[in-house]
Amino acid sequence: MQAFDYQDPPTVARATGAAKEKTDGKYLAGGQSLLATMKLGLASPTDLIDLANVPDLRGIKADGSAVTIGAMAKHAEVAASAEVGSRIAALAALAGMIGDRQVRNRGTLGGSLANDDPAADYPAAVLGLGATVNTDRRKIAADDFFKGLFETALAPGELIVSVTFPVPKRAAYQKFRNPASRFAIAGVFVAQTAQGVRVAVTGAGNRGVFRLAAMEQALARDWSVKAIETVSVPAADLQSDLHASAEYRAHLVGVLARRAVAAA
């Protein structure tokens, strides 16, 4: 790991200001991905801008129609939150499935979304619920946020402040986890929202998280396991690796979607 300078800003304005001054600086949230890539020599930022002491990036607020979670909320905090659990139980359950206990007590919502690992769990919830990513500059709809493998709509220096999740009529998440990393080999988030049915898949796509339009249309007509039993998942756009082939992932997505609908 190369040498770097350390910044400890107390406010969002100071954090984003440091990012503008340090063109090769990186925000440090939970550090679960960034520090590992630095140790491997895959990232060499000149500065780490630690967000741990920025109070405006914390907290969970809820009302009748939405839950807004600060970017620095730990996975364990989301999983244990009464506000999240009572309004979007599927989101609390998803947070409780991330990694192991150590990861859940260090990793953050904002860090996970900014990194956009193709096998991460939170992207499925954000896309599946039609959430809004709030930054220091703007609001980004879920459908516009994810751009590909480890790629998002965030501009250089743009900072995720919070994420607003609409409360769905019903929702559930199911995943087939890697037994070592506990990342999703495939994961499916289904939701019946005020804007319609949404089905988001993580861990399987060649370009990261994506929506399954055919299943959404079938479930919009009839919210039941039977409605999607004959919906095929094309393997052409899915990835193959040492963990699973594209064909196996296509099979998993169908199985997990049916389980999620049943659970919801």
Per-chain topology:
Blueprint: E1 5-7, H1 12-21, E2 25-28, H2 34-39, E3 47-50, E4 60-62, E5 66-70, H3 75-80, H4 82-87, H5 89-97, H6 101-104, H7 109-115, H8 122-129, E6 132-135, E7 139-141, H9 142-145, E8 146-148, E9 151-152, E10 160-166, E11 170-177, E12 184-193, E13 196-202, E14 210-211, H10 213-221, H11 246-263
Parallel strand pairs: 1-3, 2-3
Antiparallel strand pairs: 4-5, 5-10, 6-7, 6-10, 8-9, 11-12, 12-13, 13-14
Offer a quick outline of the entry.
This protein has 264 residues and is of the alpha+beta class. The protein has eleven helices and 14 strands.
What are its keywords?
Enolase-like, domain 1; single chain; 33% helix; 264 residues; globular; Uridine Diphospho-n-acetylenolpyruvylglucosamine Reductase, domain 2; four-stranded antiparallel sheet
